[in-house]
Amino acid sequence: MPVEITWWGHATCTVEDSGVRVLTDPLFARRLAHLRRRRGAVPPPEAAVAELVLVSHLHSDHLHLPSLARLAPGTRLVVPHGAVRAVPGLRKLGLRLTEVRAGDLVDAGDLRVRAVSARHDGRRLPFGPHRAPALGYVIEGRARTYFAGDTGLFDEMAEEVGPVDVALLPVGGWGPHLGPGHLDAGRAAQALARLGARAAVPVHYGTYWPIGLDGVRPHEFHAPGDDFVRHAARLAPGVTVHRLAHGESVRPEVAR
Fold it and tell me: Cys-Cys crosslink for 14: which of 6, 51, 68, 180, Cβ 3.0 to 4.6 Å?
């Protein structure tokens, strides 16, 4: 079976490759603090079915304990080094916890997952001084799929990530402004051009929006996916971009 990618919204994706289901940054909430899910239904129970779950960093819209509690007991959860100390609630979930740094490898069936660097504030905000790195992951099976998590553009990105077939890139946020350590649609297209992937899926946009800001620059919520398609056509014209709806799946063509 070819690799299949499902986007559930925000940074939550299922990557199925070589018979293994990998879930990224699960966020299954209708509301998170001041954020409300504005587009797409809350993912169904089958979205929480995975053999391996990857968390890119400790921000609560990426490491969300109530969403992780929906995983089956014993599911293997990969988190950045220091996460368990910073978020003690992880120990209470009944999951198999693996902490990793950039460069570490994790095997799951016929898949190998490699942790790579990200340029993003990885702290568990606003609580405590404990730090953990923000990470991306390269899922290597029949395809090489790069899940960037949250990151800014950095010079070593292509060298560290290496050749990939599919790039899952964040292209927006959950407010009118993106601070340092993020990719907007234009910078994500620059990253795509450097990575040389065959296919891309834009994520991390068009799902959550602050309550009360519905009428403030609403294009910032709706536009990043289309903007990424437009910028990618100019900067990486050989790449096929799949702009998915919430809950939609795609089987990108890969070289192998």
Answer: 6
